[in-house]
Design goal:
Elements (H helix, E strand, L loop, with lengths): L1 H16 L1 E5 L11 H14 L4 E5 L7 H14 L2 E5 L13 H17 L3 E5 L16 H21 L3 E5 L6 H11 L4 E6 L10 H8 L3 E5 L3 E5 L8 E5 L9 H11 L7 E4 L12 H29 L2
Parallel strand pairs: 1-2, 1-10, 2-3, 3-4, 4-5, 5-6, 6-7
Antiparallel strand pairs: 8-9
Helix pairs in contact: 1-9, 2-3, 5-6, 6-7
């Protein structure tokens, strides 16, 4: 009984510590704003909405160290933790080694260190067949094995910087295939950046991905997608389409249950909201719809975590 109560207390603590934010590349900024200014504008706007984490792309960081330090001071003052997308992790060494990619990776890790980020994220798949499980030139297992040397080296570089390296299931492999990659790489600081809906893109039930990757998850993309009838005759009769959180076929409540109990980073876990492949209403202003999507998503996640905390408290 005591062990059960301790577990429930840990669940409550972990739920309260989880950080809600957004994938900044999709959060629209005013026209004409420079990339450096976009990041600061987003951080201020999202902090006002109660967010405590923000994901930024490598290209949205200034090359001026003083500017980076100013940005760090701002995030510290607003209580916002940053997560950086680092390019080039799969070009560090091995069969896909690329000097330019490695240079970008090293620079990104250097910048992330400046901010004291606990985790950085990357991805292999680049939204095409070649960088996915459907590349017919070799088997899925051979494909995964070919990624190990670079991921292992990238993981060691990241570990030396005191960070975890999270690999997104980025429209490339199923969750269980990525589990094989992580187990083969065999580094404690290399795990998953769980995208809750990308499983649809490799014709996998995303709930299977979530179950498989929860014990490896260092960070997330919280995404929902709905299966809808395909309107174009001659295509596969159903397809996945982005939607507001809670309105699709991803069980986000169950996702949080799994993550809070199995993620090695459950305490302070980043819950980063990202839209799927959306079908915006052509009769409404696109920008208004995008802002509305994020506002609803942030509130949805706040309400979900609050409900989970109450549920856990009632079990004590």
């Amino acid at each position: 009984m005591a062990d059960s109560q301790t577990m429930d207390r840990n669940v409550c603590s972990n739920l309260r510590s989880m950080k809600i934010g957004v994938q900044g590349s999709f959060y629209p900024a005013p026209a004409g704003m420079s990339k450096g200014d976009i990041t600061e504008w987003q951080i201020r706007r999202l902090a006002a909405m109660g967010c405590t984490v923000h994901q930024i792309g490598f290209g949205f960081l200034s090359e001026d160290t003083n500017k980076l330090l100013e940005l760090k001071a701002l995030t510290d003052s607003l209580g916002i933790e940053l997560e950086l997308t680092v390019p080039g992790a799969f070009g560090v060494s091995g069969p896909y080694a690329d000097a330019e990619e490695k240079s970008r990776f090293l620079k990104a890790i250097q910048n992330a260190s400046l901010f004291g980020m606990p985790v950085v994220r990357t991805g292999y798949g680049r939204l095409n067949v070649k960088t996915s499980r459907f590349n017919k030139s070799f088997s899925v297992r051979e494909h995964l094995d070919s990624l190990v040397p670079s991921l292992r080296e990238a993981g060691k570089i990241t570990a030396d910087a005191g960070m975890a390296l999270a690999v997104e299931n980025h429209c490339d492999f199923t969750g269980r295939e990525l589990v094989y990659l992580f187990d083969t790489t065999d580094l404690a600081n290399v795990g998953a950046a769980l995208d809750t809906a990308n499983g649809f893109t490799v014709f996998c039930d995303p709930h299977d991905d979530i179950e498989a990757l929860a014990p490896y998850t260092f960070t997330t993309h919280i995404k929902d997608m709905a299966i809808v009838d395909m309107p174009l005759r001659g295509y596969i009769p159903m397809t996945a389409q982005g939607c507001t959180l809670g309105e699709g076929h991803v069980n986000l409540s169950r996702t949080i249950d799994l993550l809070v109990r199995h993620s090695p980073c459950a305490k302070g876990l980043h819950l980063l909201i990202e839209p799927g492949w959306m079908a915006w209403d052509p009769n409404r202003n696109r920008l208004e719809q995008e802002y509305e999507y994020f506002e609803k998503g942030i509130q949805y996640m706040k309400d979900l975590l609050e409900a989970k905390v109450k549920e856990a408290e009632n079990s004590l």
